[in-house]
Amino acid sequence: MRTVQPAIMIGSYGWDQDRLPRDEFDLRIGELDRLMDANGWSAMLIHGDCEEHRLLAYYTNFVPRLRWAMALLPRKGEPRLLISMSARDVPAMKLSTWIADVRTGWDWGHFESWLKSLADGSAIGTLGFDGISGTLFGAVERSLGNRFDLRDASGELPRERPLRPRELSLAQDGAALVKLAAATAAGAWRQGRGNEAALLAGERTARANAAQDVRTLVSLDGGRSLVPFQGMLDARHDPFLAHIAVKESGFWAELFLTLAERPSGVMAKAEAGLDAALALMRPDADLRTLSAAALRTIAPLPLHPVLGGRVGRRIGLSLDEGEGIEPGSLWTLHVGAVDPVEGGAIASAMIAVAADGAHLLCRSRDV
Amino acid sequence: MDEPAPLNRIAAAVQLLEQRGADALLAFNNAQNSFLESNAVFVLSGVRPIGPSAVLIDRSGRASLVLTPAWDEARAAALAPGLTVTAADDLPASLADALERHRVDRRRLVTVALGTMGRALARRIEAVLGGTPPAIDDFTRDVARRRSADELAAARRATAIALSGYRRMLEVARPGLREFELAAELYCHMKALGAEDNFLLVSASQHNLAVRAAGRRVLDQGDIILSEITPCYRGQYAQICRTTVIGAPSGAMPGKYALLQQAMRRGQEAAVPGARVRDVTRAIDACFAAAGYGDYCRPPYMRVRGHGLGITSDRPGDLTADSDVVLEEGMVFVMHPNQYLPETGYMMCGEPVVITAHGAEALSTETATLDVIAV
Question: DSSP letter at B333?
Answer without folding.
Answer: E
